[in-house]
UniProtKB/TrEMBL annotation:
SUPFAM superfamilies linked to this entry: Ribosomal protein S7
Pfam families noted in UniProt: Ribosomal_S7
Family per similarity comment: Belongs to the universal ribosomal protein uS7 family.
Protein name per the record: Small ribosomal subunit protein uS7 domain-containing protein
UniProt keyword terms in alphabetical order: Ribonucleoprotein, Ribosomal protein
Species the sequence originates in: Corymbia citriodora subsp. variegata
Protein's UniProt keywords contain Flavoprotein: no
Length: 241
């Protein structure tokens, strides 16, 4: 080569075969674990091969799962507050909603307002102690204002291309989602600067019976009662097919 450079490599490129290595080092393979090491890993309280005792399965609840460690209502509110896929920001807003929001007042007992009463309160806690339990307070508000039914416009049932309103029952998650959407929609019209403050004030307004969400719930139920005869019409039409 030019400049008198040597053509020999300065390092070795030879490789040994796997069979030769196994013949030379048969006792030091990765699969061979000394028995003394296995015996040292055994703990009398946990069983062989375990360092800690296995927890009893009977005491494991749904919230102990990593992906279900939050309350279902709190998680549903968080997902409703999420914008553009920013889950961490929505979780921060939910935390401010429960901890940094306005103080939770006891539910009023006035029978003139459509506030949460002992009849429609869905909780095992006394009404006076609900402010001490934020998650139970939030769940009670949402479940109390959630509609039981929704109105589906079914086209072609009545004939002539007209749509027929048919009351349809909803599941618990659907009911809660509708109530959360109503509350968030009503919170957009409030004057508070922060979103967490607007939502917290609207939740308190629902608990006090001053929110317009109660009227929306009553309107849906009135429409369902007036259209209850359409359920039989739809059932008879399906039976003819």
């Amino acid at each position: 080569m030019a400049n008198g450079a040597s053509q020999k490599r300065s390092y070795s490129t030879s490789a040994r075969r796997l069979q030769q290595l196994q013949e030379v080092l048969p006792e030091h393979t990765s699969s061979a674990v000394p028995p003394a090491m296995i015996s040292s890993m055994e703990y009398p309280d946990a069983g062989p091969g375990h360092k800690f005792a296995i927890p009893p399965i009977d005491s494991v609840t749904m919230l102990d799962h990593l992906k279900r460690r939050y309350d279902p209502v709190v998680e549903q509110v968080t997902k409703s507050l999420m914008r553009h896929g920013k889950l961490a920001q929505a979780q921060k807003r939910t935390l401010l909603l429960s901890d940094g929001g306005p103080p939770m007042a006891p539910v009023p007992t006035s029978s003139s307002s459509p506030a949460i009463s002992d009849i429609n309160t869905i909780t095992h806690l006394p009404r006076s102690t609900l402010p001490l339990h934020p998650i139970a307070y939030l769940t009670t508000i949402i479940d109390s204002v959630a509609p039981l039914l929704k109105i589906r416009q079914m086209r072609g049932v009545a004939g002539g291309g007209q749509s027929l309103p048919v009351p349809t029952p909803m599941g618990i998650r659907q009911r809660r989602r509708q109530a959360i959407q109503w509350i968030l929609g009503a919170a957009d019209g409030r004057r508070e600067t922060k979103l967490s403050d607007r939502v917290a004030r609207e939740f308190l307004s629902v608990a006090e019976g001053k929110s317009g969400v109660w009227e929306r719930r009553a309107m849906v139920h009135r429409l369902a009662v007036s259209a209850r005869s359409n359920i039989k019409t739809v059932a008879m039409r399906k039976s003819r097919r």
